[in-house]
C-alpha cells in the first residue's frame, strides 16, 4: 500500500483542512483505486515465518490482526488526527467506546476525576456509576464555573472530563482556562467534542490533551453507522490507550470506518451549513420563546450566558441547540405536531431531528439528577439539518402554534 503523497507526515500535515478532509491518510493498493479501499478482513497472511515473527516483535511494519491494525481503519485514524491537529488517533466502535477507553486506559483505583455535571446521559453514567466501581473517585461540578474546577482539585486528581458545548444543555466550558489549569497541575483533560467536530472547534488549540469523539454524529453525518475516536499525543495513544484497546477490543469495524471516511470528505461543508441553518432557525424562535417565558439555549445567540466564549472557541455555532418550554406536556405537544422535523434522539445528521431529553436520552436518571444537571422537563433539543431553512421555519412555526406558543 502506498500513501497518496509519499510517506512523509510533514507533507500531509502542511495541507490545509479542506485538503486533509479529502486526502488525509489515504493509502492506495497496487490497483490505484480513487476511493479508499474497504478491507473487510480480520486477519493477514505472511510470506514466511520470519516475516510474521518480525511483525510480532515490532521489528517490521505491517498488519497482524484487525484488533491491532486494519488498513481502512488506519486511514480513518490518520485523517481524523490530521483534521484535529493531533499527533495520533485510534478509532473506536462508538462514541461511548471512545469515552470509556479514554478514561479507563489512564485511571486506576485511588485516582480522582473531575467531570462536568451537564453531559450526555451515558457519559454521566461512566462518571457516576462505572468509575466508582473500580475505586476511582469522581466529583461533578458546574462546568461554567471556573472557580469550581479549581476547588474540586485534590492531590490525586488525574483527569478533567467534559463536553463543550454539553449535551443537551449547551453549557460552554472555558477551554483556555480549564485546560491551562489542568496542565499547571499535571492533570489530563479529556474533551468530548461531539457537538462540534474538528470542523468547528479544535480543543487542542486551547491546550486540551485528549479529544474524544462520537463519530456517529457529525463525522458520519448521515445517520448510518456508530463509530468513535480518541486523539492525543503519540505517547498517550501508543503507550497508554493502545495497550488498553488492543487487549479489550473496542475497535471500529472497517466498514464503519470506511463510511466515516466518506463522511469526513463533506464534514466542513455540512457543519457550516447546518450551523447557518441552526442560527437562522434560532433567531426565528428567539422572541416567541422568550415572550412565553421559555429559554433558548443556543451558543449562536447573544442571549447565551457564554456567547462571547462560544464565539472565541467555535468557528460557528454548530447544528444543535435546545430550548425550554412550559413543561413535558407542551414539549411533547410540539414534537407531536411536527410534519417535517423527525422525532429522533440522534444528532449531527443531515436531517433535522428533535427530541425531549428528559423522556429519552436522560430518562435513565432520576428527576432530581436531571434537574441538577439542567435537563428540565420542558426542554427540547434540536439537530438542525441541511433541508431548506424556510421549510424548517414553517414546520417549527406551525408546531409551536399547535402547542399554544
Ligand atoms: C452521542 C454522544 C456520545 C455517545 O456516542 P455514541 O456513538 O452514540 O456511542 C457521547 N458524547 C456525546 C456528547 C454525544 O452526543
UniProtKB/TrEMBL annotation:
Its EC number is 2.5.1.-. One of its GO terms (molecular function) is transferase activity, transferring alkyl or aryl (other than methyl) groups. One of its GO terms (biological process) is transsulfuration. It is an enzyme of class 2 (transferase). The keyword Amino-acid biosynthesis applies. It catalyses: O-succinyl-L-homoserine + hydrogen sulfide = L-homocysteine + succinate. Its cofactor is pyridoxal 5'-phosphate. Keywords: Amino-acid biosynthesis, Aminotransferase, Methionine biosynthesis, Pyridoxal phosphate, Transferase. Gene3D superfamilies: Aspartate Aminotransferase, domain 1, Type I PLP-dependent aspartate aminotransferase-like (Major domain). The modification N6-(pyridoxal phosphate)lysine is found at residue 217. GO terms for cellular component: cytoplasm. Pfam families: Cys_Met_Meta_PP. The keyword Methyltransferase does not apply. Pathway: Amino-acid biosynthesis; L-methionine biosynthesis via de novo pathway; L-homocysteine from O-succinyl-L-homoserine: step 1/1. Catalyzes the formation of L-homocysteine from O-succinyl-L-homoserine (OSHS) and hydrogen sulfide. Belongs to the trans-sulfuration enzymes family. MetZ subfamily. Homotetramer. HAMAP family: MetZ. This is O-succinylhomoserine sulfhydrylase. It comes from Pontixanthobacter luteolus. The lineage of its organism: Bacteria, Pseudomonadati, Pseudomonadota, Alphaproteobacteria, Sphingomonadales.
Amino acid at each position: 500500500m502506498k500513501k497518496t503523497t509519499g510517506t512523509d507526515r510533514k507533507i500531509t500535515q502542511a495541507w490545509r483542512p479542506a485538503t486533509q478532509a479529502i486526502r488525509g491518510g489515504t493509502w492506495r493498493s497496487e490497483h490505484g483505486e480513487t476511493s479508499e479501499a474497504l478491507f473487510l478482513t480480520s486477519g493477514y497472511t505472511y510470506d514466511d515465518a520470519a516475516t510474521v515473527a518480525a511483525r510480532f516483535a515490532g521489528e517490521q511494519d505491517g498488519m497482524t490482526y484487525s484488533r491491532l491494525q486494519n488498513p481502512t481503519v488506519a486511514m480513518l485514524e490518520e485523517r481524523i488526527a490530521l483534521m484535529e491537529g493531533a499527533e495520533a488517533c485510534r478509532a473506536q466502535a462508538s462514541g461511548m467506546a471512545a469515552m470509556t477507553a479514554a478514561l479507563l486506559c489512564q485511571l486506576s483505583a485511588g485516582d480522582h476525576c473531575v467531570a462536568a455535571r451537564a453531559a450526555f446521559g451515558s457519559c454521566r453514567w461512566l462518571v457516576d456509576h462505572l468509575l466508582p466501581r473500580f475505586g476511582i473517585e469522581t466529583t461533578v461540578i458546574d462546568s461554567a464555573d471556573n472557580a469550581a474546577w479549581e476547588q474540586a482539585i485534590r492531590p490525586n486528581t488525574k483527569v478533567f472530563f467534559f463536553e463543550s458545548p454539553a449535551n443537551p444543555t449547551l453549557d460552554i466550558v472555558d477551554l483556555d482556562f480549564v485546560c491551562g489549569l489542568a496542565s499547571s497541575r499535571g492533570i489530563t483533560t479529556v474533551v468530548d467534542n461531539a457537538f462540534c467536530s474538528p470542523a468547528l472547534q479544535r480543543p487542542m488549540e486551547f491546550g486540551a490533551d485528549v479529544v474524544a469523539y462520537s463519530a456517529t454524529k457529525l463525522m458520519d453525518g448521515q445517520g448510518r453507522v456508530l463509530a468513535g475516536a480518541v486523539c492525543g499525543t503519540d505517547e498517550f495513544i501508543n503507550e497508554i490507550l493502545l495497550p488498553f484497546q488492543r487487549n479489550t477490543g473496542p475497535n471500529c469495524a472497517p466498514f464503519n470506518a470506511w463510511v466515516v471516511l466518506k463522511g469526513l470528505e463533506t464534514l466542513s461543508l455540512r457543519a457550516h451549513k447546518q450551523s447557518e441553518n441552526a442560527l437562522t432557525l434560532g433567531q426565528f424562535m428567539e422572541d416567541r420563546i422568550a415572550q412565553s417565558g421559555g429559554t433558548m439555549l443556543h451558543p449562536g445567540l447573544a442571549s447565551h450566558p457564554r456567547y462571547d466564549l462560544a464565539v472565541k472557541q467555535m468557528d460557528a455555532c454548530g447544528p444543535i441547540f435546545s430550548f425550554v418550554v412550559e413543561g413535558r406536556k407542551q414539549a411533547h405537544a410540539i414534537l407531536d405536531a411536527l410534519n417535517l422535523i423527525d422525532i429522533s434522539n440522534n444528532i449531527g445528521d443531515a436531517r433535522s431531528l428533535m427530541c425531549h431529553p428528559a423522556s429519552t436520552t436522560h430518562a435513565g436518571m432520576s428527576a432530581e439528577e436531571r434537574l441538577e444537571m439542567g435537563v428540565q422537563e420542558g426542554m427540547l433539543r434540536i439537530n438542525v439539518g441541511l433541508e431548506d431553512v424556510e421549510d424548517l421555519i414553517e414546520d417549527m412555526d406551525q408546531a409551536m402554534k399547535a402547542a399554544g406558543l
